[in-house]
Every structure is written in C-alpha cells, then in structure tokens.
C-alpha cells in the first residue's frame, strides 16, 4: 500500500474513495459563512459551522466559553478532559 492509498481514521472520519459511503448518513457541518465557522477543539483544524453544530447539539459550554464539534464523537471526548481540549483553541 502506498501513502496515497492510506485512509486516515478519526472519530469523524470522512476520508473515502466514495464520499457518499464516507458520510454514513452524517450531515455536512462545514457549511456556513466565515463568521459562522470555527474549529473543533478535539479534531484540531477541522472546520465546523457554529449554526449547524448548535442545531445538532454538537457543542459544550465550559468556563463561559462555547466549544463546537465537528461530529458526535467529539463531545464525549471533550467531556473526558475539557481543560485539555479547551487549551487547543487558544
């Protein structure tokens, strides 16, 4: 297998040769305006629409700050150590 054939896995993996298969029924949370977009504190660098995340319940409030997640798997991970993941957003 070459490097280009490898698929990276994550809690919200969408890497696949066929994007329809990769979505596995998940809504695309990357839509929205630039003002509406932030990064996921768990999957650092993964963009997420704040409005889409809120509508799906993919956020947590921690120390008077709201954190938005790119997928449902990131919320429980954030809950396991919120200070660690909140520090990723500084």
TrEMBL record:
InterPro entries: Ferritin-like_SF, RNR-like. SUPFAM superfamilies: Ferritin-like. Residues 1-36 are annotated as: Disordered. Residues 1-17 have a biased composition (Polar residues). It comes from the Bacteria. Gene3D superfamilies: Ribonucleotide Reductase, subunit A. This is YHS domain-containing protein. It comes from Leucobacter coleopterorum.
